[in-house]
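User: For a reading group we're discussing how well predicted structures match intuition. Take Thioredoxin domain-containing protein. Before you show the prediction, I'll give you the sequence so everyone sees exactly what went in.
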Amino acid sequence: MSTTEHNSDKAVKPRGQLKLLAIFGVVILPILAAWTMAKFEIGIPDSSNNKSDLVEPPIMLEDWSLNLEPIGYGSPWRLVVTSAAECDAACMELINEARQINVALGREAGRVEHLLASGQGISEAIDQRLERDYPRLERASFDPARYRSSLANQPEGWREGAQLWVIDPLGRIVLHRDPDRPGKRLLDDLKHLLKVSKVG
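Assistant: Thanks. Here is the predicted 3D structure of Thioredoxin domain-containing protein, as structure tokens, for the group to look at:
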């Protein structure tokens, strides 16, 4: 064997080994990286896809003694403002926000109703204002004690003052508007729910 052939064999061996190592790296390294991320919880996002507060554990309309009709497949989604006490300025702002979210849904707006659920009677002045400014606003009443009790495992702020919720057609309270986040986040979540929902 000549010196030239001997040197050529030496050059081929490292190239073949490099190819084998490259194939190994492409196949095995991502698996090892994924295992490491899962095992040590490195680089895994801790936030969910929803931009507003997901209500967990779930709450049902019955938990509030809130009677809404219809409920079930084909029923509307609902943007519900709850006020255990008199509907004050913050309550009126949420009613306005619920209407704006409803309008911003565009062609999907017909699948959603906005509603005020009161824990006590509404004064005549507030009633007249609601009739004048929000003629399509639905009204309902609920049991304030049961309402507060159902929220015992939720953040304390959810039990104080007026709140804005999304209720699905089956009567489940699914989303809560975080007061520190703009209503657009709730709108984005509701749009997503309407897109994927087969129940209403």
